[in-house]
Every structure is written in C-alpha cells, then in structure tokens.
Amino acid sequence: MSQFKVVVTDYEYSTFAPEEEVLSKLGIELEFAQCKTEDEVIEACKDADALINQYAPISRNVIEKLEKCKVISRYGVGFNTIDVDAATEKGIIVSNVTDYCLDEVSNHAIALILSNARKVTQLNNAVKRGNWDFKVAVPIYRLKGRTLGLVGFGNIPQLVAKKVQTFDLNVITYDPFVSEELAASRNVELVSLEELCRHSDYISIHVPLNEHTEKMISYEQFSKMKKEVFIINTARGPIIDEQALIKALQEGQIAGAGLDVFETEPVEPDNPLLKMDNVIINPHSAFYSVEAETELKRKTAENVADVLSGYYPTYLVNKVVKETVSLRDKQ
C-alpha cells in the first residue's frame, strides 16, 4: 500500500506513464477518478495527501473537506479551477506548470494570425464548396508594416513578438505589470489598452483568467477597434465577452477572429460563431503537441513529488503559503 494517497481528480489522457515514472520512486500508485462536481471530488479525495487536477472544481467547499491534503497540482498553466485563497488559508500548496507549451501556444497564435490575415481557412472552405475564386476573400492586406497588439506580455506573448517580427510586423503590448524597459528590450512598445485597440490590425490575447481580466475585451473595446482588425484568443474564453464579440462580428465592427477557447467548452452547437466564415474555431488545442503533453504530465507529478518529499515545488502558485508551510527550497 502506498505511503501517500495521490488522486487524479479527472483526466482526458490515455496514459499516465510520465506521472507513474516520477511517483513510483516514492512508492506511490496513483488513484484515478472522473469527478465533475464538488461532491464527487470530496468523495474521492477527502483523505488524499495530494490532488492532481485537470478540470474538476476545487472550490472552497471542496478544500475545507480535505482532511490531510498537502498539495494540489494542476495540469496546465492556468489555475482557475482551484480556489487558491482557500488553499492558502488551509496551508495547501497550489502548483501548476508555466512553461510546458510556450512554443506550441505561441506558434498556434501565429498560425491563427496568419490564417486570418491571408484568409487561408475562408478560401479553403470556399474551394471545397465549389467556388474557385480568390475574390471571396477580398480584401487581403500585406503583413509588412501592420501592427500586432498583444494583450499581456508574459512568456508566451514575448515569444510571439520575437517570431512575428520576422514578418516585419510592428508589435505593441498592453500589460500593467511589465516595465517599458522590458518591452523595449523585445523591440515592443508598451501602450494602454485603449491605444492597443485603436492601433492594432491584429490583436492576440495572452492574459490569465481572473476577476480582473474576465470580459476585459467587451463592447467598449470593440467599438474602438479598426474594422479591419482580427482578434485571436488562445488564452481563456471568458477574457473576451462573447456576446460583445458576436455583435461586433455581426455588425462588421471587426473583420474576423481566430478562437481556440470559449466561454463554454465544448462550444455550444447553436453558438452563432460556428456559422461565421470569418471566424476560425479550434477545440482548445493550442497547448498540444506530443512533447508538450509528456512534459506537462511529468512536471505536474514532480510538483507532487517535491512537496511530499519535503520541498517547495518548482512551480509554486501561492507563494504566500511559505509564511505558514515550512518546507525546504530545492537546490
């Protein structure tokens, strides 16, 4: 019997070889659940030492019922499934993996920018419907000299900026937590959100979802954008007010969108965005590659192994927990 009980609350994976390779060194055998509700998480995890979480809700109600949990490790960069404040109050470490898919998401965002700019998907669909005519995609503008606005300037958008400058795009960014010096060192201009909306030809979203960023792109922001602008979202769906986006597209306020994420996932079959030729829709796939998934799974398990071995994890979300939880720093 394992010394520790580690439960995977829910999952979409077919193999757990990377996690098992890491945790087997501590004699841990994973336990698996497919929890969708708070009650299901409580039932499966109340006596667990550690949780590995994908989408199941780890709310304050759940956390208060956890009897001996030391760490909740999430598959992914975001941690909006977890009530971090409640975990911190209970002395539970929350961890994520911030760097497993930087290349994948930055490339996916650029793919959506290019597909919109060159209207590749729209032309493909037209040809497959029997319409061999480039004029269905008119107008198409030259990339060189146009402006990409990055909402957020963390690791992923910094990579986007580096890569798109190969196309001679100007890059501007809005991020209140970034210095002008950092932006300038990446050959990027730091601007206000209003300036970004007014001046961008393409806008790409790269902020985490929280109480400050939910619906930060809404009616007011769309009203300031160019009619030629395309908006790209590979971050989290609720950062864009979806009804405002639909209205902006229906009324021709903006030219189109490339969306990997939505307010409700899977996207609802009656969502008007599904019927718009100028909207590219992907099923929350920007993070994925074979290599990225393996790295994510390994690092998620390493967070758990670190804490259960008496160390702070490499990826610590709630750093303030160090005030109440005494572990060792890894060398």
- Unreliable sequence segments: none
Which of globular, elongated, flat, extended, rod-shaped describes the shape?
elongated
Largest sheet: 7 strands, parallel
Strand arrangement, largest sheet? 8-7-6-9-10-11-12
User: What Rg is obtained from the alpha carbons, in whole angstroms?
Assistant: 22 Å
Structural class: alpha/beta
The number of helices is 12
Q: Please state roughly what percent of the residues sit in beta strands, choosing from under 5%, 5-15%, 15-25%, 25-35%, 35-45% or over 45%.
A: 5-15%
N-end to C-end Cα span: 30 Å
Secondary-structure element order, N to C: EHEHEHEHEHHEHEHEHEHEHEEH
Overall mean pLDDT stands at 97
Structure overview:
With 331 residues, this protein is α/β, with parallel strands linked by helices. It has twelve helices and twelve strands.
What is this entry, summarized?
Helix content is 33%, strand content 13%.
Task: Please give the structural blueprint.
Layout: E1 6-8, H1 17-23, E2 31-32, H2 38-45, E3 50-53, H3 60-65, E4 71-74, H4 84-89, E5 93-95, H5 102-117, H6 120-128, E6 147-151, H7 155-164, E7 170-174, H8 180-185, E8 189-190, H9 193-199, E9 202-205, H10 219-224, E10 230-233, H11 242-250, E11 256-259, E12 279-281, H12 290-308
Parallel strand pairs: 1-2, 1-3, 3-4, 4-5, 6-7, 6-9, 7-8, 9-10, 10-11, 11-12
Helix pairs in contact: 1-12, 5-7
